[in-house]
Amino acid sequence: MSKEFRHVIYDADGATLRVIDQRYLPTRVRWFTVYDADTAYRAIRKMIVRGAPLIGVTGAFGFAFEVRIRDMMGEDVNADEIADHITSARPTAVNLPNAISRVLSAYMKGGWREALREAIRIMEYEEESSYKIGIYGSELLEDGDVVLTHCNAGALATVKYGTALAPVRVAMEKGKLIHVIATETRPVLQGARLTTFELVKDGIDTTLISDTMVGYAMYKGLVDKVIVGADRVLADGHVFNKIGTYQVAILAKKHGIPFYVALPISTLDLKGTVEDVIIEERDPNEVLYVRGRRIAARGVHVLNPAFDVTPPEYVTALITDRGIIRPPFRMALSDLVRGNV
Q: Residues 104-113: pLDDT tens digits?
């Protein structure tokens, strides 16, 4: 997003993290202040912030602020309990437990000051890594490409450039003309509300479509590439991302369209299996209501998983902050984390 617009502001003097409350976008810009574990939990659970990298950053600062308050007041600190509380806010995105593990370890070694320094390092890493994703991913884009993206994996999901949208932004900076097709992303409409908000704000040509139009758009030859973000990627290349990603991947495969997943290495889970990952089931009201208005019959049952899983055979490549990773993924990702790529 443009340099003038910041949606995450760390106030060192006030020991707070101010974030834009994304529930009110695009019609209103309201701020929410994270100053302890409970406000971090609320921000994450209520989707005031969302996107795996930003969730991790928010959780890390919430932990650091909480232990700081308790230490300064001379209270007993159960750091593990605080860590577990924040981590429980949302179970699927791996950035949150990864970030909390880092600040917890830092606290055990050097107290709240070291925990806070670690939270700052996590935030700085996410900003830097998103730009690197943009650098690597922009090489996959040609002048005039139309890129379809699902959900919001832009600046609002990170600290700055984004993941899926970072290659688009860097390609544009290099003088390439890129058009974006954004799916609305039911049921919370992150694509319609957030992706279009930030792309239009940055002057990037964008078309909004309903989720049910993806197959039609591909059949008509309107899509050159697909780039999505991720909430967790396993060692074998299974991708957990916003519900609907799997069907987009299948349609891309059917139509011979490259399907790319953009992520920092903080989103990798090299130890877990598909069976280990908890798919978050969210409030049925997200499906039953749109902006406070009920749209479904009373008494109907609702299934509302927040994420689905895309098998690696549908993934053309992973765009990471350390380079482009192509299948087979297991060995390549292991080398990536060890720094051999």
A: 999 999 999 9
The single residue of 36, 145, 211, 231 carrying the catalytic annotation is 231
Residue 179, C-beta contacts closer than 8 angstroms, at least 6 positions apart = 144, 145, 146, 147, 205, 206, 207
User: Can you give the pLDDT at residue 157?
Assistant: 96
Q: Where in the chain is the domain with CATH 3.40.50.10470?
A: 134-338
CB proximity list for 74: less than 8 A, separation 6 or greater: none
Query: Is residue 321 annotated as part of the catalytic site, yes or no?
Result: no
CATH number assigned to the domain covering 8-132: 1.20.120.420
Which distant-in-sequence residues (6+ apart) come within 8 Å of 98 by Cβ? 56, 266
pTM above 0.85, yes or no: yes
CATH number of 134-338: 3.40.50.10470
